[in-house]
């Protein structure tokens, strides 16, 4: 049985199919790589999953109504730290900018670095919890036995009293978990390493 030779049209069609498949595979790989930062950005914009908002300035509206904010702290596996809030809860006026402190201590005999993740519960309130300043925005390195107090400056957006799902919330919990992290190298050190590797 003889094979029918492929016409130029068939060859072009097959090439287009192969090209489309390769483009699809490359696109899926790119989406997988971008999934984590995109999800993180989505959470920060929407407050989804209790993610708090980062703002540059304090609220200019303060209500007479108060809300209780409680503070939670955890340490992930592999980070030898003692970590907790200085005070367990406060009552604040909605819209009022306040500062609270967390305290961390390195219990090991060597420098260790951590970075905190955070969320607010109930999760619906995450979009209304605004941080002006927070240690969670950067990594933290503690020397052996070093203890450090770390501030969080925040306010609860007065808009929280308007939506049906949040207007009756009387207590929020701000929760942090510190995880171990390799300290970032200064840009100059990275360039020196790249130069050494080329030699």
UniProtKB/TrEMBL annotation:
Cellular compartments per GO CC:
plasma membrane
Q: What is this protein called?
A: Cytochrome c oxidase assembly protein CtaG
The UniProt similarity line reads:
Belongs to the COX11/CtaG family.
Q: Does the keyword Protein transport apply?
A: no
Compartments in which it is found: Cell inner membrane
In what way does this protein cross or attach to the membrane?
Answer: Single-pass type II membrane protein
User: Which residues are on the Periplasmic side of the membrane?
Assistant: 36-199
Function noted in UniProt: Exerts its effect at some terminal stage of cytochrome c oxidase synthesis, probably by being involved in the insertion of the copper B into subunit I.
Sorted alphabetically, which keywords does the UniProt record give? Answer: Cell inner membrane, Cell membrane, Copper, Membrane, Signal, Signal-anchor, Transmembrane, Transmembrane helix
Q: Which molecular function terms from Gene Ontology are attached?
A: copper ion binding
Source species, please?
A: Sinorhizobium glycinis
Q: Which Gene3D superfamilies match?
A: Ctag/Cox11 (2.60.370.10)
Q: What does UniProt list as this organism's lineage?
A: Bacteria, Pseudomonadati, Pseudomonadota, Alphaproteobacteria, Hyphomicrobiales
GO biological process annotations for this chain's record?
respiratory chain complex IV assembly
NCBIfam families xrefs:
PRK05089.1
InterPro entries membership:
CtaG/Cox11_dom_sf, Cyt_c_oxidase_assmbl_CtaG
Q: Which residues lie on this side of the membrane: Cytoplasmic?
A: 1-12
């Amino acid at each position: 049985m003889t094979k029918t030779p492929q016409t130029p049209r068939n060859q072009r069609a097959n090439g287009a199919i192969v090209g489309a498949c390769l483009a699809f595979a490359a696109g899926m790989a790119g989406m997988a790589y971008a999934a984590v930062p995109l999800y993180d950005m989505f959470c920060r914009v929407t407050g989804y999953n209790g993610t708090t908002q980062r703002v540059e300035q304090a609220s200019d509206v303060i209500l007479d109504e108060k809300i209780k904010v409680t503070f939670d702290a955890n340490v992930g596996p592999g980070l030898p730290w003692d970590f907790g809030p200085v005070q367990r809860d406060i009552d604040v006026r909605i819209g009022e900018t306040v500062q609270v402190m967390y305290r961390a201590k390195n219990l090991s005999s060597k420098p260790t670095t951590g970075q905190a993740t955070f969320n607010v519960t109930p999760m619906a309130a995450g979009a209304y919890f605004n941080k002006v300043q927070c240690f969670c925005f950067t990594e933290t390195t503690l020397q052996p036995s070093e203890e450090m107090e770390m501030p969080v400056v925040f306010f609860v957006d007065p808009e929280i009293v308007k939506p049906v799902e949040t207007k009756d919330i009387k207590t929020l919990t701000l929760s942090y978990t510190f995880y171990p992290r390799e300290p970032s190298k200064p840009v100059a050190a990275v360039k020196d390493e790249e130069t050494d590797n080329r030699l």
